[in-house]
Amino acid sequence: MSGEISPTGKRPAPGPSPELRASHADRDRVVDVLRVAAGDGLLTADELDERLEAALSARTLGELAVLTADLPPASGTGGATGAEAAEVKDVVRIERIHSGAVERVGRWVVPRRLELAVTYCDVTLDFTGAVITHDTVRIDVGMTGKTLTLVTRPGVVVDTDGLQLVHSSVKYRRTPASPDAPVTLRVELVGQKAHGRVVIRPPRRTFGQWLLRRPASLSAGA
């Protein structure tokens, strides 16, 4: 039993056999662990995609355990969710030079502070499905070229006052929301963006939403 790793990345006490069938909850826990690890820079985008596909198709606990065996233990109990695991996240740094696009989409965990050291790579931070555990995230921007895109949802506001622009522009299209809607996350952009654009927008409408003239954010919910 000493070599077994639980689906959450922790060494368990003697318990279920790895040959036991995995439940949907087991798969979801591993998916959360993988997304947190990718947000911490422990997995590349390709590794994350590969492991997520394997996790969603895994049939046994043993198949799930292999996917997190080389990752640090997740915080909390064996049933920790993505939001609970986020408590260990403080600063996440992303460094890229002339590489593929950097994307944080889906159920990614928003840290307290995000550092972008990026040169000529598009960056997309999509908050519509993100796990938000803090009321403020500071994004230290050190970015040259290409476009920094922030996709918001109701309750997410972006402050660009601390961002220095050098041959760059900001386009901020606010998410349709009630004037008295509470702010759930304040995104503070600081640092410098040179030679490119910063685009802040709500999610794009689907074809059906376009036909109905309904904002995507209202259909997605809070």
Write a concise synopsis of the structure shown.
The protein is an alpha/beta fold.
Walk me through what this model shows:
By secondary structure, the protein is α/β, with parallel strands linked by helices. The chain folds into two domains: 1-88, no CATH class; 89-204, no CATH class. It is 23% helix and 31% strand. The chain has six helices and eight strands; from the N terminus they run H-H-H-H-E-E-E-E-E-E-E-E-H-H. Strands 1, 2, 3, 4, 5, 6, 7 and 8 form an eight-stranded parallel beta sheet that branches. Helix 1 (24-39) runs antiparallel to helix 2 (45-57) and helix 1 (24-39) runs parallel beside helix 3. Residues 1-5, 10-14 and 75-88 have low confidence and may be disordered.
Q: Return the string of H and E elements.
A: HHHHEEEEEEEEHH
Mean pLDDT: 79
Work out the helicity level: 10-25%
Oligomer: single chain
Largest sheet: 8 strands, parallel
The radius of gyration computed from the alpha-carbon positions, rounded to a whole number of angstroms, is: 19 Å
Shape field: globular
Distance between the termini: 44 Å
> DSSP helix count?
6
Tell how many strands the DSSP assignment holds. 8
Describe the secondary structure blueprint for this structure:
Layout (H helix, E strand, L loop, with lengths): L23 H16 L5 H13 L3 H8 L13 H4 L5 E7 L4 E3 L8 E7 L3 E4 L9 E9 L2 E5 L4 E17 L12 E17 L5 H6 L3 H5 L2
Parallel strand pairs: 1-3, 2-4, 3-5, 4-6, 5-8, 6-8, 7-8
Helix pairs in contact: 1-2, 1-3
